[in-house]
Amino acid sequence: MPGAIQSLSRAAAILRLLAGGERRLGLSEVAAGLGLAKGTAHGILRTLQQEGFVEQDPESGKYQLGAELLRLGQSYLDVHELRARALVWADDLARAAGETVYLGVLHQRGVLVVHHVFRPDDSRQVLEVGSMQPLHATALGKVLLAYDPVARGELGDGPWEAFTARTVTEPAALDAQCALVRERGWADAVEETWEGVASVAALIRDRRRNPVGAVCASGAVETVCGPDGAVRPSLVASVRTAARAISRDLGAHRF
Amino acid sequence: MPGAIQSLSRAAAILRLLAGGERRLGLSEVAAGLGLAKGTAHGILRTLQQEGFVEQDPESGKYQLGAELLRLGQSYLDVHELRARALVWADDLARAAGETVYLGVLHQRGVLVVHHVFRPDDSRQVLEVGSMQPLHATALGKVLLAYDPVARGELGDGPWEAFTARTVTEPAALDAQCALVRERGWADAVEETWEGVASVAALIRDRRRNPVGAVCASGAVETVCGPDGAVRPSLVASVRTAARAISRDLGAHRF
DNA sequence: GAACACCGGTCGACGATGCCGACCGCGATG
DNA sequence: CATCGCGGTCGGCATCGTCGACCGGTGTTC
């Protein structure tokens, strides 16, 4: 594979830099952050600004991400076949399970949430479409890891960040869990990401039976798990059924 | 202003092209669509793919937008100051008015929705954050046009697309409406975009009193308008109060 | 208040770099 | 089985992006 276009890679790095830092960044900060000459960084920023990918605060002269990215991100969702097919099934699952439903795909070293159905009660909830979740500490992530050796390889050997006392941080434990996931056909994560929150996830395959994403039902431990502390079998069944339905919708007819 | 970086502008054009066409596009289609040599288009696409801005269907070899755009779009929302300040006010407005609330900013030749609060009932609704609305046929758009001569200039002389029988399509009529908006301090759009839907919008200013966006309450004609066919004054008051509150939050202290 | 440091932005020369069009292998198609 | 069109590659040429010095304004410090 021949090399990449230098200016484009640099522009992408600038966008990621702006996305990472919480606040706006000045020209010099951007240039220093990527080891570029100021003139070079300025040329790229100027072009990104013209295209709407970056905006400049006229007062301070600092840069931040631009609106065009939001528009293109929405277009990404519009074209996304998995998401389109899964919309109705995710809705059904949320209603049947009475829990929040996420649809996630592998992206870089995490899970990107491409769809989110609120738990069907009136509690205040924020939409998490477009946000990333860790691979090692969520049900979505463990499902995707279990069926994607490449992603597992890229994740390295840890130890990974512990979000709660129950987060899996060691490679041996994670690989054991992944083996279990493959054996059972579903993954759970009980208080591994947030205290009090438990999730169940199952894999979605496309027409060539390749893994393309995962569905997940998530909610309070008290409702997701039974009195024995294990995930309620009926919830597992609902999630697996939804995953199968979406896979079939994508063309994976044979099981 | 010196010229833009060629490869970057071309990459942006490719992304817009992919966002516009509903389906995936092949390399040759992309090259032809922008008048580029195939090799050139391929180099840009390859780089965009490495950076995650574009994905390639391994089966057909066709290209579509990539997941990184969704992630960056979300980051745009995270940093967006107007949106952050407006979140709580928009929520209050939706509850008080009992209608859907939109928050929009000017982008290119339309209104980009940066926040959306569902009407507080249990009806099925789809999130429209990231979508675009026409300037000439929505309350949000007319508010932004009324206070931004540049945007009005860029819109040209019409006639614009008619979405319903009541859509304003002629420049004279639109300019008259804009004058009215400036005089009253708010805009309405009754069945100008969709049959049966009416909206009220008011302007949001930043600390230098420059227009930066608009809030809008939108719902069925029967609930938004009174028996005389005009928008209910109490709803207008709620929207204007919300707009003032957000503006004040942004630092526009003096009125 | 003057010297200073630092900012965003510009400029022009140099040469690395991205552009182009011919070419390749493959799969679909008749 | 020949043909067409596809995505992808390659190498030479000159264009285009890069770099570091430089400018004017602003806020800071002593």
From TrEMBL, chains A, B:
Sequence ranges assigned to domain IclR-ED in this UniProt record: 68-252
Coiled coil: none
UniProt superkingdom: Bacteria
Pfam families linked to this entry: HTH_IclR, IclR_C
Domain (HTH iclR-type): residue spans on this chain: 5-67
Keyword line: Activator, DNA-binding, Glycerol metabolism, Transcription, Transcription regulation
Biological processes, Gene Ontology terms: glycerol metabolic process; negative regulation of DNA-templated transcription
Gene Ontology molecular function: DNA binding; DNA-binding transcription factor activity
Function comment: May be an activator protein for the gylABX operon.
Protein name: Glycerol operon regulatory protein
